[in-house]
Amino acid sequence: MYSCVRTLSLCGLTGREIRVEADMSEGLPVFEMVGYLGGEVKEARERVRTALKNSGVILPPKRITVNLSPADIKKSGTSYDLAVAVSLLKLLKKIPEDAGEGMVIIGELGLSGEVLGVNGVLPMLIEAKGLGINSCLVPADNIAEASAVEGMRSAGIHSIKEAEEFFGSGNFIQEDIGDEKQGDGRPEYNVDFAEVNGQESAKRAMEIAAAGMHNILLIGPPGSGKTMLAKRLPTILPELAPDERMEVTKIYSVAGLIKPGQGLIRSRPFVAPHHTISSAAMAGGGTIPRPGECSLSHRGVLFLDELPEFSRSTLEILRQPMEDKEVTIARAAASYTYPADFLLCAAMNPCKCGYYPDRSRCRCTDTDVQNYLGRISGPLLDRIDICAEASRIEYKDISSRDENESSAEIRKRVEKAVLMQQKRYEGTGIRFNSDIGVKDIDRYCHLGRKEEKLMREAFDRIGLSARAYHRLIRVARTIADLEGAEEISCAHLSEAIGFRSLDRRYWNG
Ligand SMILES: [Zn+2]
Fold this sequence. Notes:
By secondary structure, the protein is an alpha/beta fold. It is built from 21 helices and 18 strands. The chain is elongated, with a radius of gyration of 27 Å.
């Protein structure tokens, strides 16, 4: 006697179909599982047997073999349990012979027979959809996630008993997922730019960063409000596009960060790791690598406060994702790739005591200052588009509260600039000005004669690297877009040069 059902395995964000075959024959009573299994999957045998027993299904004293194929994929994790149990229910004729045909079955089992939620349901089901599979049986905890996959009929169950009922009736228990859970509408924030007094130039820099998704470094003395500014960046970011929501949710799903009942993520991530973070936690680590902080900030903000306090190796690890917009982690069994396209927002004091270049207060020697600033490597600095200064708060800033612009007002301008970019880059794969490749710069960032001359002078005067030069032009493109201008003017370039030359003041001053 033989039965077969389908499930999926996940490597990074890509899934592969796994067939769970069960066979029963006469012979010594034994229940075994084969097929290149990792530790947790080997243990599935005991979990499944006990869960079935506690659901009223006793395995007969026969020779029962379950095989997970193909044999070239190492199976790890606990998400195969339910499929194994269903293959046995079929084998024992507890459910119809054609049960589970044309569908995938995903879920972990508890010893009592309950079905527990698992990580990675969304990427698995997207993969299943690609294989032409249109229905699935998943844990009830994952049903909101499953419902986010368009055209996938999903049934969410709590126990093996419910699985039996489902296969008996064939009714899809499509839970009613309201718009709320599907992630429509704007996210709400409990902070707002209206609370930040003064800091007009830093706020302007944040607006430009948000509009073109440019990396930004905030530099200034302690207490100048750098962290306060950074925390408000998400409130002015453009909304996540539907495909971006899917991408972000896939990563959070694999990382096990989707709450039961939660559907698509609707706000851009804001991830702020502490400076003691290890490079493995930044890039992604573990035997089966889990997405790191730089992937969890995909399509959102990676905020590094106290940038020079991060270890050099942690900062170096950011170079690959900042260039390739993804992270690859190699393991003996396979290599895992996770997307990591984030806006880097970093904040730092200009020196150890925090008051350089205010020599009346800074007590550091020149060497101290250079050593401190030197912790940020040139290549990393080169990948930062905008360097903005947060200045010491003055009395007039503390007292002026009324005329501060709100996040909603700033966001309106950002959204207009984003709309211009969407129109310009339709069908090109480019989303924001910061994504323009070097070969496309001339095409999308055309400069007139006057503008060319200005750039030539700036290039010589502030000694730009080629990479920095291109970044500057991309920022100027965003400044023009914020103004609704198709052509980049000298004024746009000058403002961009201002953001670029600020870092020279500290690093080459
Ligand atoms: Zn100092």
